[in-house]
Inverse folding.
């Protein structure tokens, strides 16, 4: 019983360490604000605001789902383009300071990279 409790606490702390780096709000180069939050053992990301009037219709839209930690500073899953709802496989990498997040999306031979800044 004691060992079960020790393992539960240990793995709970590891899981918490992996999720705290990504949770919060991030600003994209287009000045959209994206919020990452935990949904069970996974992350979900949604666009909560934008400065562009034409993109306001995408506020509160899920743009990342089934995002799972790969390591303490990386997670990957489904990335959704809010403009056309197309889905891609994406990887997010958080820098050592926890202030920048790099999004990498690959489709075929083409890739897309973008740096987001933490705002909270």
């Amino acid at each position: 019983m004691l060992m079960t409790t020790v393992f539960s606490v240990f793995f709970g702390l590891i899981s918490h360490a992996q999720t705290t780096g990504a949770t919060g709000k991030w600003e994209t180069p287009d000045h959209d604000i994206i919020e990452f939050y935990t949904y069970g053992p996974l992350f979900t990301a949604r666009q909560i605001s934008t400065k562009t009037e034409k993109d306001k219709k995408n506020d509160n839209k899920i743009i990342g789902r089934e995002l799972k930690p790969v390591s303490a500073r990386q997670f990957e899953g489904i990335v959704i383009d809010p403009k056309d709802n197309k889905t891609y496989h994406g990887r997010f990498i958080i820098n050592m300071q926890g202030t920048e997040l790099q999004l990498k999306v690959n489709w075929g031979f083409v890739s897309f990279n973008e740096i987001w800044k933490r705002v909270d």
In short: The longest helix spans residues 2-20. The two ends are 40 Å apart (CA to CA). Strands lie at 24-27, 33-39, 42-49, 61-71, 74-80, 87-94, 100-107, 110-118. The CA atoms of residues 29 and 116 lie 7 Å apart.
